[in-house]
Amino acid sequence: MKIDDFPNEIAPFLIPEPKGDLVYECLGCSGIYPIKKLLYVCPDCGSVLLITNRKFDELKKTDGATWQKIFDYRRMLNIPALKGIYRYHELIGPNIPIASVIYLGEGHTPVVEANQQLQQKAGARFYYKNDGQNPSASFKDRGMASALSYIKYLIDSKLAENIIAVCASTGDTSAAAALYASYLALEITSAVLLPQGKVTPQQLSQPLGSGARVFEIPGVFDDCMKVVEKLSENYSVALLNSKNSWRILGQESFSYEIAQDFEYDMKDKVVVVPIGNAGNISAVMNGFLKFHMLGIINHLPKIIGVQSEHADPVYQYYLEPDSDKRVFRPVSVKPSVAQAAMIGNPVSMPRVVSITKKYNETAGQQSVFFVQVTEQEIMDWGLLANRNGHIACTQGGECLAGLVGAVREGIITDSECAILDATAHAIKFSGFQDKYYTKTLSDEYRVVSKQELINTPILMMPDNPEKIPAQGKPLGEEDFRVFVDDICRKIARELELSDSK
Question: Which one of 149, 294, 437, 501 has the largest count of C-beta atoms within 10 Å of its C-beta?
Fold first, then answer.
């Protein structure tokens, strides 16, 4: 639709102008710093930052119902910059002109309700939000669209040039960073650090295909992160991990989309997300808080963060019920099939602590919960989900296992409906499925393949194995007829088909 086709009271709001007063705010010392240059941690105390809009209250001059109409009507626009996460421009990057926005097709991923059979097995009504249908096949594109749009804004404003963008990754971050950086290949060079042997072949192929410089480092993700942090402290580079608070802003769009898809009715809703570096759960909570502050939603949904027992520092922290006695301790991770969440020292932990406290206070009750699951549960529930029409990665399996655990613990009631984060496409982690089916998963995963979930191809050979077609060597007409009849009969027997004649 064109602007002239929209109602007069809404049309002036549809194309946003740069405004707002965004600053970096330190979660440690409460210091405030301008956004005219890239900052990842507080220059004074070293704590992580959040980006806040000091003119946020001006957005409250527009009532919640009008904001709903603005976002709903923007759905109909054919302006690329507003098709993705910047549909919510006023909340994600109000200072960024839409001419600086990078849109590669990210955001507005489908929400798919589980079938009745799977909901009965899980014990709750639920949907998957398929973030694996983002351009690089993971939710990381949300944060990268925000971070790279900000960098383009700096370039367009002559505040930066010849940028080297770096990140540490378990796979998905590097794929997204390399993809979005490659779109700005004349201005940005991309480099990614990966833990050697800890990234699936599918994920490794992505940054290589996007032209990034890929460096494999011995150890695990946390070790790569330390190297990247050292690089950002000593050299002029753009850090694209979730320590970058622009990433958090972009990932808030996940919450906005859920609210919009459910007609802004968040009563009796539960959002389940896996926790790795803890940036995503921080963003999800912050997004719902902003919508609530503007009256766009009237209820805050429950938030459930899920961690594997092989990488569970956030879960361990919240085991202590007394907030004054909680002490964060990094953990040494063990191999996990939820590879993207295999992080023992999440950089966004201070964000989780701060935003969780605010979220519960705003809700007037505990509304943020943390659940631990086993590797066996992650694999089994993930495979079961995909056998019922979904495309969930192992982190999506982790979410479904967490949902089942939350139902078992009484965190989720019969009246509530859950939305689960399938953070990446199932294809990215298909190697774990293959190993499950062939019973070749290493013992360190502590996963036993269940026969009822195993699915492997069946080779069908004719009675005469010497009379088979091959490329460049077709069978004669009679031999081919015999071959087809033979194979057809054997497949019919395997499928227990009855003769239709």
Answer: 149
- Are 275 and 340 a contacting pair, CB within 8 Å? no
The reported pLDDT for the residue numbered 407 is 98
What is the CB neighbour count within 10 angstroms for residue 158? Answer: 7
Q: Which residues of the chain have pLDDT under 70?
A: 500-501
Distance CA 220, CA 170 (A): 8
DSSP string, 148-212: HHHHHHHHHTTS--SEEEEEE-SSHHHHHHHHHHHHTTTTEEEEEEEETT-S-HHHHHHHHHTT-
- Taking the C-alpha atoms of residue 251 and residue 144, their distance in angstroms, rounded to an integer, is 9
Could you tell me the domains of the chain? Answer: 119-133+252-453 (3.40.50.1100), 139-250 (3.40.50.1100), 458-501 (no CATH)
Output the DSSP codes for 420-449.
EEE-BBGGGGHHHHHHHHTT---GGG----
Q: Give the pair of three-digit tokens for residue 259.
A: 């609210």
Nearest to 347 by CA among 409, 426, 282, 253: 282
Contact 20, 153 (CB under 8 A): no
d(CA 16, CA 456): 53
Burial of 464 (0-12, 13-18, 19+ CB in 10 A): exposed
Helices vs strands, H then E, count in the chain = 17, 13
Beta bridge partners, 370, equal 305
Closest CA to 62 of 3, 4, 10, 6: 10
At 221, phi and psi to the nearest 5? -55, -45
Residue found under tokens 């979220």:
359
Q: Give 495's contacts (C-beta < 8 A, 6+ positions apart).
A: none
* CB-based contacts of 226, cutoff 8 Å, min separation 6: none
Which two structure tokens, joined as six digits, stand for 495? 């499928």
Show the tokens assigned to 434.
């293959």
The confidence score (pLDDT) of residue 220 equals 86
Q: Are the beta carbons of 127 and 113 closer than 8 angstroms?
A: yes
Strand order in the sheet with 22-26: 32-34, 22-26, 49-53
The pLDDT assigned to 500 comes to 67
Please state, in angstroms and rounded to a whole number, the distance separating the CA atoms of residues 170 and 390.
23
pLDDT of residue 96: 95
What is residue 499's DSSP assignment?
Answer: P
Task: Show the DSSP H helices in 364-476 as ranges.
Answer: 375-386, 394-408, 430-437
Integer Cα distance of 303 and 280 in angstroms? 12
428 is written with which tokens? Answer: 């990215």
Rounded Cα–Cα distance for residues 397 and 145 (Å): 26
Whether the CB-CB separation of 23 and 34 falls below 8 Å is answered with yes
